[in-house]
TrEMBL record, chains A, B, C, D:
Pathway the protein acts in: Amino-acid biosynthesis; L-homocysteine biosynthesis; L-homocysteine from S-adenosyl-L-homocysteine: step 1/1
GO MF entries: adenosylhomocysteinase activity
Residues binding NAD(+), per UniProt: 273-278, 294, 397
Region annotated Disordered, chain positions: 1-56
One GO CC annotation: cytosol
Residues given in the record as substrate binding sites: 108, 182, 207, 237, 241
Protein name: Adenosylhomocysteinase
Organism: Crotalus adamanteus
Record text on cofactor binding: Binds 1 NAD(+) per subunit.
NCBIfam families documented for this protein: ahcY (TIGR00936), PRK05476.2-3 (NF004005)
Residue stretches making up the S-adenosyl-L-homocysteine hydrolase NAD binding domain: 242-403
Length: 483, 483, 483, 483
């Protein structure tokens, strides 16, 4: 299983940001206050709990929080009408009848809506958390109350983490036939401990960058023994996770942490990919003066045409009020840059890991760190200059802003459709490889979300469909279409 | 003193929102967490406190918080460089030498920067709070520590409130010659209790809508006995308090309370004045689809040209995702409108009072109120429909977002210049009337804030000034210029 | 009559741009091609022409063009529904019954709609042209055909110009009682030649900057002997002539002359008044990177908050692709600036006169001028550098773009209402002074244009009107309101 | 050669719009006036002409126009610095030494810059026109003057057209080894008449949609006998031809034809692909209120998130001021829609063919057509309603606006690099198939255009390149990247 040997250390790995789509559980989220309440300190593993129907096939912090968790789920359902409509459309057929899904994701109100949708479509589910901090305890309780076998709580230890996963897989009486994973830990565990389980597995659905990367490595090495669906790269999910979501969260993250006024601020955004495009659009719209750095000439040309000056970072760094990284690269903002920033300059990261700003270089004796607010540090130079560092260089949108439920709905619906597709695909459609969601299903995800906007699609006439050489129901674009 | 008899009841009055410029003290502000700490319950009036120099000429919650308050003030100074530069420019001349200023404003880090600027310009100050809830205790302590006679704490009673004001005015050894007021309470108290004080007063500077209104009434009634400066209506302050500030705070307020995604949301904004213009620009920029209601055909025409549909509220109310009032009017959103809203519709107010949404009409037995978060109520109809009401219809930007220090800097600088102008004006320049800040000083306030943006003004040549018939140093526009 | 002695020389004066609102007759306009047709060379003054009813009380180029002119007028009527609705509303009352209006304006299809509206409201009209080049001959013919006494043609001589005006005023059988002027020439002529006419005149309506300036001078000198209405400064007209119109015409003017791509272009706009704001908004929206120069700190601060860098011209001149003046000032772009521009830099003027760019400084032997297209000169430096000068520094929007009929409708409606107001005002309402259109009528102009946008105004309830202290029918804002 | 039997009739075919990139020759373009000059009526084929060096190996309208044509080429060079820099970079190596290129494209100043660049890189060229109307005669003359064997003039007959192509290919002394085609006619002719020529051909570069389509058909049918490069679908060219170019040309086309004011106009854009996105962005930016129709749910969702209402055409058709098609589909606007439009509604097409609006349905007796201006028809209903039809439903941006030289520079540079790549590719890199330009060369095209914007690319450090797993010189993105 050498592919997995390249994994970062386990603790580190699980503190990586995976996908934006599952980030609603940070300290700013609506429900955060509730889960912070000081429960007793007994480990859930040592508690005996049963739900109101006498079922004890779960392990959560406190089953008594179920009612509160149910309300959170109901609120989430209001912005996840795509899943609700999926429940309705599938009412007769039960496309997941017989499916036994083992899942490992963040456990939040939004995931709960997904899990309960899978159940409504006919599946049985066992679930653990993909992150030791992100579980909403009351939501886990609500799931347990309605009979979902959930094993997760906020603040698990490393050992708890694997114990929970194991409890989902290692059952004499219940053999999973589908895997829904976020980060690849569940898949890893099955590979390592219970390889025989794969004989019954019809497919893996994986949504994180990291997990997808591992699957491609397995595939390349010829070790992927079931079909896998990469839902991370579906068009709809990508646009929402990056462009649309960042357009909103950059403003939210900056405002909640620093109360900065955007108007007239000089901002440099490093990287003009989808995340950078979203950040730039928002900041420009609110009166910021935005500069771009880019390594790719095509993206640089786009930045020019969109009205941004393309510069090298050291050309502008002295005059910037805000510096934002969105590159996926490392050491984009170096100590040298930090040394040259002006007083009160705000530095933050919207890219996909915490390496973009060389934060380590700031941990030197001559600099003083002052924590002025949650997620906000002033790093103070000997001459009194302060640089405002947000989230210690980790992802601003994960740490300091929330993700709208609607964005999570896109992801969850994509996951549900991928499960349905893999579970129902005729023999031979999918081999032991990694697949993207078929474009037609990607379009279906989009179409399920249009009613939220009261948007009305136009249908092709027979004549038009023939003229265009298209099926009236799609797919409407070739695979390489750039949207 | 019949003018004052029209005042709302005192408690009600002081819970009115006055000006946006002094709103940084709500529960979301940076320092909020600190002042929430549970101090002992002894009234400050009963405590004996002295600062480190043995001075006890103040009354604050806890003098020991001074150091922390000092840091808050220092952070505020970073975004108030206009006042700092005013200190520097006036270093030699001390334009307020001899001035004895009695003030009644919100007491926040930003006000502290103002007060300390006034002192640096030569003035002596005594200060109380214009709002019983808005005092940052640690800031008051920091002021007391450096010798300012401050009488204020968070959570004053009605009686405390007037006691504090009285302690500022009623001194044998110290007679004020200038008044800086925010809301008119201080002015009212002096009129009522110590009319003789006006003999020495050179002028009143008032920044709130309410206070200015009262002054005009006094003037109209022939009872204004000193010159007064209306700083509320200076161009610079108005643009920042309304257009620019609301452009940012509407997003912030909605996001912090509801985590709503803006993209694709259908929003109706009632009123297309400066506040409405700011809200619309921001929401449109982030992908909202915005409709306007207006009573004034000129503003309506502007809305059209700016790309918004102008509608009557009842024409669109059924399909809206968000309803925002910015009219200054009352009952703009009625129970009938609320009845017709769709599930999950968000309703909030950005106008100048809490009357715009008929919240009272929602206090009926068939509707259930559910507090889902601070400042967020779900009002639930019998059929399960939920309307999301923010801040119970009070000002969203005061209740649920913060005001950037830069905006407060504009106001504070305007106040400082108004005090200097009135104090130094030659006999006869100002009569017993209400004046606007001279345009030249309004321009000066603006110019003091340009360095923050690294903006470089162009100077007229002699020849050009002559051609335009202007003084090279301004004023540059006629009074009626619309900006 | 010394006020008039300050006038520029007559020929020069009439080549001044007056108001944007009457500029549709330049060489790019729709009808231009028609009037360019080579008519015979006999002066209209020497021709004997009669219309189809035998009337010969006019002097136009060619009465036979009437039918074609009528079609132009009908097309214009489609975008001037405000005037059409004014005709309808006033059908019974004829508010201008008895009015004898002598007018001197550009004579275009749009003016014709105005003139025919005045007639429909009961007035008799005699009309001449305020510009020797701007008359649409076919429109003049169409007016003559329906009996309007019009004296104007394209390409009048200086002598023709005054002859035409004189033919309007100098009648034994017809004494005017109202004047509608654009530029002040008609008013000047009456003052100079027929001062007695003023005894019957109830008022002057003047729409140009120049003409209004003269009226204020007369008033100041105590020589204004009738009331005058300044329609140039009405809110609605101002916004359309400047902000909204320039937002569109800057793009149009640049594109028609140079086919320049806007995306990524670096542009400096000198002046951030209404014209500058319009230009900047459009250029930024299409991907331009815009810099501002300003002398007024308040406008400069607005530019900052709107997301523009405020610079001095010489700081950025080397890197600019386009330079646009909107100041109303002179020598804003000097030879020194022009020397430092880069190759292919485009220079043009959107301000109110042709003095902003020091074009004269380019008429030196070492520079070569090359006319590459109508209104486009390449000025070539000895090293081969070319600067692209548009319209020789005259107004770009007058010379190289058209003005939408809708904008002209605003002006024409304002003029019509001003005439009605002055003609019907009770004795004493207006003295021998210059007045702005009452705000209520300004609002009425706006309201007449709302149906074009299918915009629906909201009406105040009695209760709301009382709360706001407003009349339900307006005016809705104080005079100083800034919109 | 049955693939070619599906071709439209020849005349029809060549009036098809192919690619936007070669559209600068319509009647609005800068040089149009010059080529309209009435030359003598003798066919160029019958003239004996020699250039100043005695060379007569060409056939153009009038060799004497060479000097004027040269100036046009020089002006074009100013905006095509990418090609100029290509000339410089390749100075030593001459990457096209030995290349004998036969070309068939529009012959314009911009193409001339391309042809002369190919020559500068070492190639010999023979050239004909791909469109019987689009040749700029003076440019052809200038090319002939410097020795390019060009056979083209404006207003060729069908017979002339093929004669010119034949003269390029059918030479005893000169055998082409590269083909540059635009539309496929040249390729078709060689296939049909001189199939043996393909033995020496190293590759075909084709830029039009139509020509590319034919090549794919040939390839599918196994009849493509040389490698072909599809430059139409390169990222950079696509973005400029569609999104960026249409963002500008929609405004230009509407303004030049109708002088319409954009502010407040209600517009429906059919299709939200790249062209639609460009149109919508521009119109919204200038104050239009834009609605979208879409068949593809993903594009529809993008429209929602970008702030547009997604509707069916018949839901909004009654209230629209402007209707724009950008679908590539047929009969998107039907007679039924046209019947329901309001008076003065403007209808135009920005999509890729003239079928989107059912113009044929308007050719019925009860409707009157009135040509009011070049490219503008009023179609008049019996009740007087007028619909304003632009360019008779053909492409607005080809017929009524110009294409910036910069956009053409992108295309020309892409063509040049494709020729270099194919000509120099080692044996076996390209087979008898159709290829996209390698991403690295696409990036190179982009990079050559960055200096125009003074844009500065950031270079990866070795360490960063390793971290990202990228070559420091690109390509920087995977092939499926969506930009």
């Amino acid at each position: 299983m050498q592919e997995f040997s390249k994994f970062p250390t386990k603790t580190g790995r699980r503190s990586l940001s995976r996908s934006i789509s599952q980030s609603s559980t940070d300290s700013y989220s609506s429900a955060a206050s509730y889960t912070d309440s000081s429960d007793d300190e007994v480990s859930p593993r040592e508690k005996q709990q049963t739900n109101s129907k006498g079922n004890s096939n779960f392990c959560v912090k406190n089953i008594k929080q179920a009612e509160f968790g149910r309300r959170e789920i109901e609120i989430a359902e209001q912005d996840m009408s795509a899943l609700i409509s999926l429940r309705k459309r599938a009412q007769g057929e039960k496309p997941l009848a017989g499916a036994k899904i083992v899942g490992c994701t963040h456990i939040t109100a939004q995931t709960a809506v997904l899990i309960e949708t899978l159940c409504a479509l006919g599946a049985q589910c066992r679930w653990s958390a993909c992150n030791i901090y992100s579980t909403q305890n009351e939501v886990a309780a609500a799931l347990a109350e309605v009979g979902v076998a959930v094993f997760a709580w906020k603040g698990e230890s490393e050992d708890d983490f694997w114990w929970c996963i194991d409890r989902c897989v290692n059952m004499d009486t219940w053999q999973p036939n589908m895997i829904l994973d976020d980060g690849g830990d569940l898949t890893h565990w099955v590979y390592k401990k219970y390889p025989n389980v794969f004989k019954k597995i019809r497919g893996i659905v994986e949504e994180s960058v990291t997990g997808v990367h591992r699957l491609y490595q397995l595939s390349k090495a010829g070790k992927l023994c079931v079909p896998a669906m990469n839902v991370n790269d579906s068009v709809t999910k990508q646009k929402f996770d990056n462009l649309y979501c960042c357009r909103e969260s950059i403003l939210d993250g900056l405002k909640r942490t620093t109360d900065v006024m955007f108007g007239g601020k000089q901002v440099v955004v490093c990287g003009y990919g989808e995340v950078g495009k979203g950040c730039c659009a928002a900041l420009k719209a609110l009166g910021g003066i935005v500069y771009i750095t880019e390594i790719d000439p095509i993206c640089a040309l786009q930045a020019c045409m969109d009205g941004f000056r393309v510069v090298k970072l050291n050309e502008v760094i002295r005059q910037m009020d805000v510096v934002i990284t969105c590159t996926g690269n490392k050491n984009v903002v170096t100590r040298e840059h930090l040394d040259r920033m002006k007083n009160s300059c705000i530095v933050c990261n919207m890219g996909h890991s915490n390496t973009e700003i060389d934060v380590a270089s700031l941990r030197t004796p001559e600099l003083t760190w002052e924590r002025v607010r949650s997620q906000v540090d002033h790093v103070i130079w000997p001459d009194g200059k302060r640089v405002v560092l947000l989230a210690e260089g980790r992802l601003l949108n994960l740490s300091c802003s929330t993700v709208p439920t609607f964005v999570l709905s896109i992801t969850a619906t994509t996951q549900a459709l991928a499960l349905i597709e893999l579970y129902n695909a005729p023999e031979g459609r999918y081999k032991q490889d990694v697949y993207l969601l078929p474009k037609k299903m990607d379009e279906y995800v989009a179409s399920l979300h249009l009613p939220s906007f009261d948007a009305h699609l136009t249908e092709l006439t027979d004549d038009q469909a023939k003229y265009l050489g298209l099926n009236k129901n799609g797919p409407f674009k070739p695979n390489y279409y750039r949207y």
